[in-house]
């Protein structure tokens, strides 16, 4: 049985069947190459038609109309190799002049064949996805406590992605995590209601990710957040200053040294070079300039010894302009 799936492609992949019948295709401009990116997940045991695939055109002159699944049977089996046809539609004023495999670029799947239809205004591309055994399955449960984020295993996953929310709003960036748990207590530095989402990333094909699974909520009070900020500050300050002539380095409890990085130590910011020594004087980080005094402390919200204004974050307010 063929399963035609509509309305599950990304926003922007519009359902266009507006090519004018009877119009001569070759009066329009030719599309000589097409690209398609396929991502998503298919879970063994789920019904065929319930898969969650994202199919994006890698060009601006055509859209993804819909796709259809060619596999037979009511449910997906772990040994299945998904076989799908992707229906592309040319925008008004364009037609497909695609006749060879070299003109079709597929990311996340294997090209099988392509056929033009509807006076070359439509292109049907057949592709095969990695077998279900090489994909990442759904995560059944995600759990959050005041110290740990954990979740059940995603079969086929080589790593996991997490994203966080506070008071219903996404914070930070998507993080890649190894294993099915990690210590997150240092995250909770502001009061609010926290939760996270997690999904598996296929070990064999990183383009394929499982669906997001939502954790429970936890409440972090201001008292808890304040205590965590103090713990984070103490952890950052833990270590020993070492002198080498007139140069200073900072050794961490594990025996390593801070290198090529900023570090806040006892409420003062320092920056260390690639050899682990404190930098003094003017320092450029990205497109911003900072000033470190003779001990390496970053100055802020004041005028430097050579007469330049720094803002509250320590950034040179007006480069190459002295404070009046």
UniProtKB/TrEMBL annotation:
Range of residues in the leader sequence: 1-22
Positions of Cell wall-binding repeats: 259-278, 279-298
Family annotation (SUPFAM superfamilies): Cell wall binding repeat (SSF69360)
Pfam families with a match to the protein in the record: Choline_bind_3
InterPro entries per UniProt: Cell_wall/Cho-bd_repeat
Keyword Repeat: yes
Keywords: Repeat, Signal
Keyword Signal: yes
Protein name: Cell wall-binding repeat protein
Species, as recorded: Stomatobaculum longum
